Amino acid sequence: MFFRLKFLVALTLLGLGSQCLAKPTNDHEHHWERFKDLKKCRYNTSNIGAICKGYIRIHRDEESLKHALAAVGPISICVVAYIEDWKEYKGGVLNIPDCPNTTKYISHAVLLADYGQENGMDYWLVKNSWGESWCEKGYIKMSRNKNNQCGIATYATYPIV
Ligand SMILES: *[C@@H]1O[C@H](CO)[C@@H](O)[C@H](O)[C@H]1NC(C)=O
Ligand SMILES: *[C@@H]1O[C@H](CO)[C@@H](O)[C@H](O)[C@H]1NC(C)=O
Q1: Is the CB of 47 under 6 A from ligand 1?
Q2: Ligand 1 atom closest to residue 23's alpha carbon, by position in its atom list
Q3: Does the record carry rRNA processing as a key word (predicted)?
């Protein structure tokens, strides 16, 4: 499990999401081109934007996550994504009261971009990796301050570059 999580984290940090089908033209700008040959992951070292020297794991609570987000910027997180709910998600703040918060159920690596409040509901703004056509330009609002719902703060990390 731990290995799988590390792998997911690494993929998010590389901006690959769930697919490794692309060629970076520039690490900074994330220009990825799709290739017909899906089995090959091509990487051109002359376009390296930053070298990852390690990573920091954020303490498992939403307050620490908020501070890290404010201080560092976007944070790599892993969440419990009930795929059916996510597929049907059409906007607003996703609230799944019985969504677990333990590593056991964590299934999806995403990027935490921001936080806010909408219609009295606190939310985390999360960038998914399913393209811009998904939901609100590729983003989902997940519940915030609801006992770490869907494990939003359970496996949060950021790279040291
Ligand atoms: C790698 O990128 C550099 C700079 O953009 C380019 O000149 C070079 O041809 C690329 N190499 C490969 C193998 O694509
Ligand atoms: C996980 O959820 C449970 C039940 O809602 C809650 O008591 C607990 O504090 C949560 N754990 C974390 C790390 O937030």
Answers
A1: yes
A2: 14
A3: no
Choose which residue among 33, 42, 44 to substitute to test ligand 1 binding: the one with the highest number of ligand atoms within 8 A of its C-beta: 44
Of 131 and 145, the one with more pLDDT: 145
CA of residue 67 to ligand 1 center, whole Å:
39
The pLDDT score that the predictor gives to residue 39 is: 65
Q: Pairing relation of β-strands 157-160 and 108-118? A: unpaired
pLDDT in tens, 138-154: 999 999 999 999 999 99
CB distance 26 to ligand 1 below 6 Å: no
- Residue identified by tokens 């509901």 is 121
Amino acid at site 23: K
Around ligand 2, the residues with Cβ closer than 6 Å are 60-61, 101, 147-148
pLDDT band at 48 (very low <50, low <70, confident <90, very high): confident
> pTM score, two decimals?
0.73
CA distance 20 to 61: 31
